[in-house]
Amino acid sequence: MPAVQSLSGKAMPRPALVRARGVAVRFGDRWVLEGVDLDVVPGRITTLVGNNGAGKSTLLRVLLGLTPPAAGSVERSGDLRIGYVPQHFAVDPNLPITARRFMALSGRVDRRRWREVTADAEVDTLLDQPLQVLSGGEMRRVLLARALLQRPSMLALDEPAAGLDGRSQGALYRLIGSLRDRYGCAVVVISHDLNLVMAASDEVLCLEHGRIACRGAPASVMEHPEYHKLFGSHLGPDTGVFPHDHHHGDRAHKVAGGGHG
User: Fold this and answer.
1) pTM for the whole thing?
2) CA–CA separation, 86 vs 66, rounded Å?
3) Are the beta carbons of 202 and 219 closer than 8 angstroms?
4) Which one, 68, 137, 138, 184, has least CB within 10 Å?
5) What pLDDT, on a 0 to 100 scale, did the predictor assign at position 227?
6) Residues 202, 195: Cα–Cα separation, whole Å
7) Coil, strand or helix: which one is 203?
8) What is d(CA 231, CA 222) in angstroms, rounded to the nearest whole number?
9) How many helices (H) and strands (E) does the chain have?
10) What backbone torsions phi and psi does residue 111 show, to the nearest 5 degrees?
């Protein structure tokens, strides 16, 4: 999606869809987020990383409006439309439903939008398959397509590659990047797969004990002392999962724990 141009021809920053300032969240007597600032911007893939309990899931819930902050502010654009893809999606084996019918449950969509999204998300050949027979990667693509049908301005992805093998993870992150390019939406991702994060993100936020330990473009974050303190300096071998990007690998380097935080 092309950048907004000023009258002088210079690129102008796009207005944030969500603007969080000094956000803090308290559960009982424990602060799980403190002093977090974040702008969710159209066309930008922002990834939240950190060990279990770092506050990633809580921050995402704050951005989505599901958890109110105890302190700070969250401003949302009037035209914010959210598409959410959960980490876990259980399919009842006794419920016979095809991918087509499942996607249609998201609401009425014009035929042109349906054709565009199913082709772009690479699910057009899966539509008549029962959900129960889809592989993990195929199911993630169906969930992505379903989220895109309603024209979201922001995609929220909770561990989108969890449980997939290295090749499928790489394919899914490439797809996420191409969908961002195609539709210009903001993307916020929670991930433990550091190799893929560094290859697929525009901005990385490293959370530790509810605070932002470091943030920025992947290359700068990887050089930050707090990143090395949290995750070490090792990344997996270059295997060409993202041939045109930096620091990638088929064997994902995972944050300790591999669960929610």
Assistant:
1) 0.83
2) 14
3) no
4) 68
5) 87
6) 14
7) strand
8) 10
9) 8, 11
10) -60, -40
